[in-house]
Amino acid sequence: MYMLHRLCGLGFTARVYEAGGGVGGTWYWNRYPGARCDVESMQYSFSFSEELDQEWDWSERYATQPEILAYANHVADRFELRQHIVFNRRVTAATFDETTKRWRIQTDHGDRVTAKFCVMAVGCLSATNHPTFKGRQNFRGPIYHTGEWPHEGVDFTGLRVGVIGTGSSAIQSIPIIAQQASALTVFQRTANYSVPAWNEKLTAEYRRAVKADYHTLRAKARARPTGFYFLFNMQPALEATAEERERQYEEFWKRGGLPFLGAYGDLLFDKAANDTIADFARRKIRSIVKDPTTAELLCPDNVFGCKRLCVDSGYFETYNLPHVKLVDLSKTPIERFTAQGIEVNGTEYPLDAIICATGFAAMTGSLDRIRITGRSGQTLAEKWRAGPRAYLGMASAGFPNLFTITGPGSPSVLASMIQAIEQHVDWMVDCMAHMRDIGAATVEPLETYEDEWIEHVNDVSKVSLRSTCSSWYVGANIPGRPRVFMPYIGGFPIYVQKCNEVMTNGFEGFVMERTNAKNEEPRVRLTQRWRVPLDLEVISPAAIAAKRVPVV
Ligand code: N01
Questions:
Q1: Closest C-alpha residue for ligand 1 atom 22
Q2: Among 177, 237, 243, 477, which residue has the least CB neighbours within 10 Å?
Q3: What average pLDDT does the segment 207-213 reach?
């Protein structure tokens, strides 16, 4: 929507094809009970319009899915975007025509259009993962996926419900489903860490105070590696005594949510430091869950925060309810779905409904669903077979005039998504406007620059403990996918700085094919607002590594 807004503002003709029946993307599809954002609402919103910031009132610290969807609809109406969006159309193919230098785009409804630029705004966590469970078709009841939830909602009252998975979606929905179901069985393959959200209603005074100086909050957020602002302590965990650490973790636990990771500066970089927070989190689980066997099964043994940290409201407490049961799949996977339920290790668990909270083919899954063909008939899927290859995560050599918003190799899912989206859009639109200024037909990264960027993304990822476990960040949740750390972990400000430099150095690393020989200096239009210094008080080892490891 932001891309559309900017393109229209600069006089481009643009059309959006949208698979959903309305705007909102993630927030259109993920309507499962309990779905809400885990970045604070006052920051998880567009920052491009001061008026929008001022006129919208978030009601809770962490907004619910319906509220975020209402916001998305408000943005679509306020900026008159709907007239340019064709809903209920899934793009099936995009082919670069080397003669006309235009993209030919097809949809599942037979639309055929051509465009100079093709922007993939398909989302990082949108292609749902449906594992192939034996006997799936035999199950007599309904099977849902959290990422494709029925719009009319589902009433589980009096039903025996099974939930497969214990990632963020499951952890948010389980406490709510447990309130309705007569019996709830959770099938867990890997235990996950989760921190309480301590969600609350926002008061009018709080909103007023933030709005009075929204600009400063936005600027502070942009200077952070995560692209959102929270209190962060840079001290290394092991420099504190055990008692100090305990006090610190207690205090950050009380703040709740993702900022819990801000208790010390080295938690994601030093295994011994990480062990201290992991131990604290496991003790919390044991203190909440009354049955010791269940508590032990719920205690993760991997690096804290290695998989995406979950944020919950009463998740672990739910296992104290007499009708909630946990089934361990870590040694014995789901054998099959039967007509009546799910069978594990010779035991059949009777169910009326099954919920697959089994996640997504992250980062590249949505691109894989479209046949994208670049120069010489090469498809993007072929080029990316051994792992995604894109310069700055925005464009890939051999695919001229194709942009990927929050593509692999950019901060994307490691930053606040809306900030990451806005920064990409501003850069891409500046690039397109520059091409119009100089009469360029195509823009495309040079392979050498792309290769060096990928190497840099890989090198920096090794600094972080996040690259060490089997998460969707590395594609490990989908059988057969190459294991590559996909998002850029050097931090949002370092990345922004790099994008800005590339632009001011005349789109360094890109080739522009032009009819007009004049090499005018790029006019920085929208990207201007991203010129923010790195917050030196919270510079992370990954950011230091990103500065040290030569970038291109
Ligand atoms: O998906 P996930 P998600 N048999 O991939 C299990 C964002 N998000 O939808 O860990 C049995 O995290 C799998 O097990 P394992 C957020 O970034 C944000 O929950 O692979 N189990 C895992 O437990 C999040 O990280 C919010 O061993 C199987 C689960 O399914 C991302 O979206 C809310 C299985 C999948 O967990 C994805 O979250 C929700 C199998 N064959 C989501 N296959 C916010 O709050 C998979 N699993 C903003």
A1: 165
A2: 243
A3: 97
Q: Is the pLDDT of residue 551 over 50?
A: no
Dist CA 308 CA 360 (whole Å): 13
Q: How far apart are CA 464 and CA 414, in angstroms?
A: 12
CA–centroid distance, residue 160 to ligand 1 (Å): 22
| pLDDT above 90 for 153 | yes
- Is the pLDDT score of 364 beyond 90? yes
Three-class DSSP category at 79: coil
- The three state secondary structure string of 22-78 is CCCCHHHHCCCCCCECCCCCCCCCCCCCHHHHHHCCCCECCCEHHHHHHHHHHHHHH
Question: Which residue has a Cα nearest atom 12 of ligand 1?
Answer: 167
With the most atoms of ligand 1 within 8 angstroms of its CB, the residue from 168, 176, 302, 469 to mutate is: 168
Separation CA 182–CA 134 (nearest Å):
26
First to last CA, the chain: 32
- Selection from 518, 77, 50, 473 nearest residue 303 by Cα: 473
With H, G, I as helix, E, B as strand and everything else as coil, classify residue 540. coil
Q: Which of 88, 123, 144 is nearest to 369 (CA)?
A: 123
Distance of CA 393 to the CA centre of its chain: 14
> What is the average pLDDT across 346-356?
98
CB-neighbour burial class of residue 460 (10 A; exposed 0-12, middle 13-18, buried 19+): buried
| Cα 91 to ligand 1 centre (Å) | 26
How many Å apart are CA 17 and CA 91, to the nearest integer?
Answer: 7
Q: What is the DSSP string of 452-502?
A: HHHHHHHHHHTTSGGGGS--GGGTTTSTT------S--S-HHHHHHHHHHH
Residue 352: how many CB atoms within 10 A of its CB?
Answer: 19
Residues 442 and 185: their CA atoms lie apart, in Å, by 54
45-65 b/e (C-beta count within 10 Å ≥ 16 → b)? bbbbbeebbeebebebbbbbb
- pLDDT above 80 (res 125): yes
169 CA → ligand 1 middle, Å? 6
Q: What is the mean pLDDT of residues 57-73?
A: 98
pTM: 0.96
Q: Which pair of tokens denotes residue 381? A: 């899927």
pLDDT band at 399 (very low <50, low <70, confident <90, very high): very high
Distance CA 255, CA 195 (A): 10
**Better-predicted residue by pLDDT, 234 or 531:** 234
Asked if residue 536 has pLDDT above 70, the reply is no
- Looking from the CA of residue 477, the nearest atom of ligand 1 is 20
Task: State pLDDT tens for residues 12-57.
Answer: 999 999 999 999 999 999 999 999 999 999 999 999 999 999 999 9
- The number of the ligand 1 atom at minimal distance from the alpha carbon of 307 is 25
Sign, Cα dihedral of 134, 185, 331, 276: positive
Residue 167 has pLDDT above 70, yes or no: yes
Task: Read off the tokens for 4.
Answer: 């559309």
